[in-house]
Amino acid sequence: MYGQVNAITLSLMEVGVFSYIPYTTLAFIIVLFCVLLGLPFTMGNGVYLFEELDGSVSPVICFAALIEVIYVVWIYGLDQLDEGLEQSTGLTMNESWKWLLKWF
After folding, report:
1. 97 near 90, Cβ under 8 Å?
2. Angle of helix 78-89 relative to helix 95-103, nearest 10 degrees?
3. Measuring CA to CA, which residue among 37, 15, 12, 36 is closest to residue 25?
4. d(CA 72, CA 100)
5. Which pLDDT tens digit goes with each residue over 18-47?
6. Entry pTM
């Protein structure tokens, strides 16, 4: 959970959407939003809501993943992504991955 909150918080701060809010405050807002979003699933009808969303969310999740790939590769930039990966891990992307992300 910490990794997900950290990834969302840092992404929002790097893009500049919420760069004026301190990191801890933004992380608290994200955690509070996730808790409020998950609260209905802990109530009496939570199993019913989960079953309803379980069958109908998969196309939405696939679409969100597609939009995320488009954003990261086409808008953020494949070269900038490769530089960031090299800076953080010391490894670069294989040419086949670059080609796949760029043209698929």
Report:
1. no
2. 140
3. 12
4. 13
5. 788 898 898 899 899 988 888 877 777 767
6. 0.45
Spatial distance between the Cα atoms of 40 and 48, rounded to a whole number of angstroms: 10
Sign of CA dihedral 68, 27, 6, 31: negative
Tokens encoding 26 = 């933004």
Write the pLDDT tens digit of every residue in 44-71.
776 776 676 666 667 777 788 778 888 8
Tell me the C-alpha distance between 27 and 4, whole Å. Answer: 10
Structure tokens at 41: 């699933």
Residue 17, token pair as written in the block: 């959407």
Cα 70 from Cα 52, distance rounded (Å): 28
Q: Which amino acid is at 17?
A: V
